[in-house]
Amino acid sequence: MIAPSxxxxxxxxLGAEIEAVAGDGENRADWVHVDVMxxxxxPNLTLGLPVVQSLLKHTDLPLDCHLMIEDPDRWAIGYAEAxxxxxxxxxxxxxxxxxxxxxxxxxxxxAGLSIKPGTPLEDHLDTLKHYDTLLVMSVEPGFGxxxxxxxxxxxxxxxxxxxxxxxxxxxxxxxxxxxADTIEQAAEAGVDCFVAGSAVYGAExxxxxxxxxxxxxxxxxxx
Length: 223
Ligand code: DX5
Ligand code: ZN
Hints:
- The chain has nine helices and eight strands.
- The chain is an alpha/beta fold.
- It has one domain (2-221): TIM Barrel (Alpha-Beta Barrel).
- The protein has an eight-stranded parallel beta sheet with strand order 1-8-7-6-5-4-3-2.
- Helix 3 (72-82) packs parallel to helix 4 (97-106) and helix 7 packs across helix 9.
- The relative contact order is 0.17.
- The site of zinc ion (ZN) has 6 residues, from strand 2.
- D-xylitol-5-phosphate is lined by residues 5, 7-8, 33, 35, 66, 139, 141-146, 175-178, 195-199.
């Protein structure tokens, strides 16, 4: 699955930018990744619930909301109630991630847990039993266009193994620095869903970029 991140899109034309990856066939994205930043958990500020509510009215693509915010225990639920398909919170920010996952699911969304590059996976395996998606950050969260940190692929391999052996039941997602040069190694490590910002919205035709990335990932994963 390919999830273009609108962080690299033109914020004055978000509806049209999503349409560019919402066509038919192979140019269609699977999810649209929405980076919510609060200038506290990360040193950048983007958009919040009112924008997500508007986007939901404009597209039938599932919205994958990545909340890089403090106190997600308080704020994440609103995104689920609004109709986001998947709501991802950071384990470094959540106070009670198990309760949070239950609340998100009860509100009708999938529950996602994200871990920063320096956060070990092993510490959170019990928590992850309650989650539908694991978002492995392959850059420090906060900005698009950064270089891929290949060290995090070890966490992807571990998560893949735990899913394949039935110990976890979740989708493995990766976010940061995914492009034509890096997607194959991520696919080989076992990623299910690839977030790509600059690689999609920096391309002349975002829809074609989605198709090209997906082709590379499918070929490399052999799954
Ligand atoms: C970074 C965001 C990413 C970002 C990825 O904090 O979470 O979703 O948009 O951008 P690229 O693909 O350009 O690294
Ligand atoms: Zn993101």
